[in-house]
Amino acid sequence: MGQFWSDRPQPEDGHSWEFYQYFLRIINPFVWGGLGACVYILKRASDEANNHRFDIEVFRGWWIRVLLGFVLGGAVIYVIDPERLSATGMSEIVLAFLTGLSVKVVYGALEKLVSEISEKFSLDTTQSKNHGDAIAGFLASELVKRNPADDAAGYTMISDLLKARTGK
Any idea of the CA torsion for 121, 125, 130, 131, to the nearest 10 degrees? Predict the structure, then answer.
């Protein structure tokens, strides 16, 4: 798209040039990310067909992979510092395409980044403590509902879970 619009002389009305400048330049990395995901799916289908193991169930979520490639291909351009990117000699289009091609790797890296940030700011302990309190409350309410004489095994199990959760 960029090649097509950049080779054309700027029209006198300026409208189509503005279209490229503001719309296509923004959407370009997203499209290249989606294209990278499509290449991955085609390569995987080719490998499965060559091994005579092709099963359509393997490709049940292929459109999700393309959508992830589309979104991550565009988003990673805005996450990475442009100066660092230019220092590697890699263009935004190449990075977006490679992101779409390797969605799992990029998503794993982003998850690791989020995990590191949450550890740095102690966000995990707050969330797990809140969930722990809710679970302990639920277990306590279930324990009150049970009669130890009628359901000794269930009462003991819930009691043990509550003790393990609260330490009491």
Answer: 120
25-59 pLDDT tens trace: 788 899 999 999 999 999 988 888 888 877 777 77
At 52, list the tokens.
């005579």
Q: How many CB atoms lie within 10 A of CB 33?
A: 32
The structure's pTM equals: 0.59
* CA-to-CA dists, residue 97 to 16, 92, 130, 158, angstroms: 26, 9, 40, 51
What distances in angstroms separate CA 100 from CA 3, 72, 93, 114, one per listed residue?
20, 7, 11, 20
Q: What angle do CA 110, 116, 121 make, to 5 degrees?
A: 130
SS3 of 44-98? HHHHHHHCCCCCHHHHCCHHHHHHHHHHHHHHHHHHCCHHHHHHHCCCHHHHHHH
What b-and-e string marks burial along 41-66, b requiring 16 or more CB atoms within 10 Å of the CB? Answer: beeeeeeeeeeeeeeeeeeeebeebb
CA distances, 20 to each of 6, 7, 82, 88 (Å): 8, 12, 20, 26
The gap from C-alpha 35 to its chain's centroid, in whole angstroms, comes to 17
Digit-coded pLDDT (tens) for 7-23: 555 556 556 666 666 77
